[in-house]
Amino acid sequence: MVETIVRGGTTGDRPGSNYDPAAVEARWLARWAEDRLYHVDDATDRPNWFALTMYPYPSGILHMGHWYAFSIPDAFARYKRMRGYNVMFPMGFDAFGLPAENAAIRNNIHPAIWTEDNIATMRIQFQAMGTMIDWDRQVASCDPEFYRWNQWFFLRMLERGLAYRSNGAVWWCPNDQTVLANEQVLDGNVCERCGSEVIRRDLEQWYLRITDYAEELLREAEHLDWPDRVKTMQRNWIGRSEGARLRFALAGGQAGDEPLEVFTTHPETVWGATFMVLAPEHPAVVTLTSAERRTEIDAYVERAKNETEIERASLDESRPKTGVFTGGHAVNPVTGELIPVWIADYVLMGYGTGAIMAVPAHDARDFAFARAHGLPVRPVIQPDGADPLDGGSMPGPYLGPGTMVNSGPIDGLRMPDQMAAVLDWVECNGRGHREVTYRLRDWLISRQRYWGTPIPVIYCQDCGIVPVPDADLPVILPLDAEFTPTGQSPLVSNEAFVSVPCPACGGPGRRETDTMDTFVDSSWYWYRYTSPHLDIAPFDAALVAAWTPVNLYCGGIEHAILHLLYARFWTKVMRDLRLIDHGEPFLRLRNQGMILSAEGTKMSKSRGSQVGPDELVSAHGADALRLHLMYLGPWDQGGPWNDRGITGMERFIRRAYQVVEDGAKVTPTADADRGGEAAIRRLTHQTIAKVTADMEAYQVNTMVAALIEFANALFAGRRGEVAATAAWREAVETLVLLMAPSTPFVAEEMWSMLGNTDSVHTRDWPEANQDFLRVTEVEIVVQVNGKVRDRVVAEPGADEAAAVTLAMASDRVRTAVAGKAPKRVVYVPGKLVNLVV
């Protein structure tokens, strides 16, 4: 008789009592570093797979949200490696920008020192997480080795006219003492970074022409394997509108005889335009205003500057519809009528042309404004089956479809069905032209802060704006600058930085003192991972062609507009510069949900609501914490943090460890229970299929559930005769392989316990044998008059007659029916038979 199991430990020991996560993790971290296990070779016979997670700000500590964002993508990257891919899973640091600068100011330490120390800390924390990061590829955006190429790209865009300097009204954050791009202003007047209310200021700034790519950005997003929510957000932000641009001449040759231009999506209503309204900031207001109206107009313009865009654009009926008549008139281009020109705060300079034709009969705000100021209302769209609309008595605007009236040559046309005919008439008669407009505005990249990439231009009194020659790059950010914000760039006061000779004429020059928006850094950083230390180009073109576009990009939904839109734009520019051969950076995008504080709010250092992982790792091990985060629920949903389930994950790991520890002491024999062997093989391959499908679908919570179920079954059967079979050995090895992506430390330990000398992370992922996935029998519940009496086993596809025969063969069922023939049978194929007697 061959003994089937040799017990480890003593009776009553808890499962896996020999497992010491701290010792295991330290041992394998050292071994992986020594073996350079995660070094990525650019030249292999395996297909490349670029797995990327949005690089973090170097805040100095990885809280639970970071673990959630990074450990799950790490598991997927490990899985793809085991599936035969040459996987690159790199990491870097978004090290420039306001977070680091503000933190340094609070802590009275230089941003460079603060950032460097935090990067060192975060690297250690990433390693403790067990990530397969190749640290040879690290990039940090504050390193001149990296930001030199920000400057190089800027100069290429400047050469192509994609970078330009312009004066205009910009958003200003009084708290952060810097301008913001439109995308960084939330809800109309809130700073995306600090939550402060922002204001408008007139400044000369640097812009990038992202609007040149608006149509392509809109069109190509539809074909990406991205969440629909993200694509919708980008579509709405780009804001494509089709309509017409109409020209309203000014009466009496006012404002230099330049007509007022209006973009409208409803050109058919121009016959109903009875006045015009300009934004208070519109440049024509100055020359259009009559002398007797000047004082009132100036006061209104000044008052409007202190209102937020949300207030100005509000549809709140209780808000007064204020405005002032300029004293000037324009000519309706289709009726020839003189119509008064007003200014009003509900018209915004940042949308359209800053001028509207007011059609009060068919627009809610125009209607309210007309009623408030006694202006005429002229209906031009008549609803079907209703009495003719009367402008004097209409209780409100009509906004629906109908037939054109009071509209001369287009009377009788159905709207919106015959809009094309209206546009044809407008163009053929010289009243305007078709046009497509976008809500998207050019990207404002100037920042009046210290901690960022210097903009590489020099101002010369004789030569104007002079680009810094490529040979003089990088323009180094001086470390001796005073970086406390004052409302202008701290670099202004650094004479050694500012005063330089003009590269063109040699005369006195002055450097640009604004720095670049930090979103410049994150618009191309993944390309740099392919050749992070190259000093003759931003990247090696051959390596970029081999690795990009990125196969899978993971990160938070909060970056749907800002970062992702800029990254797509930057990629298209690089394509047009013939640096790369593709126009989209990320083939597949997946967003994780947000791990909130226990109170349900966003984790925040300032509110003291961040949850650190170190204590939990010390108590339960990194693998248990990784599994706990995976098991919280669907990865894309997130939710409030709790640690109640982590002990269950540790218990699962210890059970798996015990299964392996026991199995490692057994040599498979030939005289085993063959029936049990078939059952364990079926369970093994069903688990392989389930875990594989869940990993491919990024359903990590159900994947963990399948692993737990498999380990529990093996733990329960580890003392039986089947534990001495080859099938059992296969099952135990499979358990370790399936756990490897999610629990890298203990999986490596268990693989070694089984006598293997190689790393489990270099092994192939197990393949499910379809022969063991076929269902050979099903269990059918038998009820009599709705009460469960027994369960019978049948062949798949058994019909009702066969099911009834099996049911009636049961002693319990025969007792329940007491010799009576069923009056009716309810049969759910393969699941239930109910005998009604």
Structure description:
The protein is an alpha+beta fold and 837 residues long. The chain contains 25 helices and 34 strands. Strands 2-1-27-28 form a four-stranded parallel beta sheet, with helices on one face. It has a four-stranded antiparallel beta sheet with strand order 6-5-9-20. It has a four-stranded mixed beta sheet with strand order 13-14-12-15. The chain starts with 20 loop residues before the first helix and ends with a strand.
Short description:
The chain has 25 helices and 34 strands.
Key attributes of the depicted protein:
4-stranded parallel beta sheet, globular, alpha+beta, 4-stranded antiparallel beta sheet, 18% strand, 837 residues, disordered N terminus, 34 strands, 34% helix
Shape: globular
Rg over alpha carbons: 35 Å
Q: How many strand elements?
A: 34
The major pleated sheet works out as: 4 strands, parallel
Backbone structural class: alpha+beta
Q: What's the helix count? A: 25
- Indicate the mean pLDDT: 90
- Give the spatial strand order of the biggest sheet: 2-1-27-28
**Would you identify the regions where 5 or more consecutive residues have pLDDT less than 50?**
1-12
Estimate what percentage of residues fall within beta strands. 15-25%
Gap between N and C termini: 53 Å
Helix content: 25-40%
